[in-house]
Amino acid sequence: MSSNGFSSGTVLVTGNGERRTFMLADGSSVKLNADSFLLLDPHFAKSNREVRLIGEAFFDVVDFPGHPFMVQTTSMIIKGSSTTFDVRAFPEKERDIVLLISGQICLDIRLSDQQLKSIDLLPRQMLTVLRTPFDSLAHTTEVLAIFFDSIMGASGEKCWKEIEWMEDEWVYQRLFPNDIVGWLKKRFRA
């Protein structure tokens, strides 16, 4: 990512209970879920396509030769082109989730020893990074475990539970009790 820390880039924001779709200068689109921030590098669509995400977003990325689309979160950098994927990365949570719908992406996961682990995802794969909550004073988080999952059901049907937020559907599977209260607050602006 750029060394300037995105200090003067464009910020896209959603509040509690709000979801918005934005068209980016490179022709890609992003749908931000509630309580999310997307910071675009000041040179986005000119010399790079780098963004920083806090929250959850669904990306529909167009091809832009020579410039991969890059999403930075607390625990990883996601790179791809001509792809659609969802990223859930709230710094205060203990896990980040990336779900690839189409195309291919490469994830560089920041390990606790400051080394990167590169992982490629293919369509219908999901990666979960379990980590410590982000320490805002030390600007660190520690990766505890990495898990892969498939989003195909037992009978072959597509299981899009991780992105049903886009269609205003409620999904209760895989929610931890402490996540339910936060989810309800975001959804209903409480």
From TrEMBL:
Residues 11-90 form the FecR protein domain. InterPro entries: FecR (IPR006860), Ferrdict_sens_TM (IPR012373). Transmembrane segments: none annotated. It comes from the Bacteria. This is FecR domain-containing protein. It comes from Chitinophaga defluvii.
